Amino acid sequence: MPRPEEAGEPVQRVLAERNVRRLADAVGLCCEADGQPVLALGGGIHHTALLWRPGLDVVPGSVRRFERVPDGLWHSMVAAVFDLGGPRLRVGSVQFSPFDQAWGFSDAAQIMRAMNSDDIPGLVGGDVNGIGGDADYDPNPYPEVPWHPDHAYQLDEHGHLDRRVARRLEGPGRMRAARA
């Protein structure tokens, strides 16, 4: 059997697909649509994928991948439309930049593109690595904490909590944060 790089596939994609298939098999979930894992490659070893229970169907041709290359996300996003036996639902999985709110602001534009391209309702699960747009629901966790590089990326150029990413998604993106 040829090694992945000899078969013409980038090693990163081959390994990511193999791993998501192994995970899906291990937990008894589905991960493939149109014969491919519903997966998007990110930077380094961090990728996003969708797993779902047997009996749900992905609408053929509906998978959209937003990857580090060529789409410019820090990590990645993948979305697919599921046929729920009548209504359809777009579901996405995303991972934003862990260190840069400016890059996160750019990532938010891709999320808006993926989720608002038509009138199919949807939901996105993921890690935006940021603070929510609503200060009452998501208060500043750092007011009494001394400056430290582990959380400094959450602050804007004036040292204030940076909520621009969440506000972009919640404003023009028409999205709402899930609240318990």
Q: What report would you give on this structure?
A:
The chain has helices at residues 11-27, 68-71, 101-115, 149-152, 164-170, and strands at 32-33, 36-37, 39-40, 48-49, 57-58, 64-66, 76-83, 88-95, 122-127. Helices cover 26% and strands 19% of the residues. A hairpin with a 4-residue loop joins β7 (76-83) and β8 (88-95). It is globular, with a radius of gyration of 18 Å. The strands form 3 sheets. Strands 5, 6, 7, 8 and 9 form a 5-stranded mixed sheet that branches. A two-stranded antiparallel sheet has the order 1-2. Strands 3-4 form a two-stranded antiparallel ribbon. Residues 1-7 have low confidence and may be disordered. α3 (101-115) runs parallel beside α5 (164-170). It has 180 residues and is an alpha+beta fold. It is built from 5 helices and 9 strands.
Number of helices: 5
Instruction: Give the helix level as a range of percent.
Output: 25-40%
Distance between the termini: 50 Å
Radius of gyration: 18 Å
Q: Which structural category fits the helices and strands?
A: alpha+beta
Mean pLDDT value: 87
Helix/strand order, N-terminal first = HEEEEEEHEEHEHH
Beta-strand residue percentage: 15-25%
Secondary structure tally: strands: 9
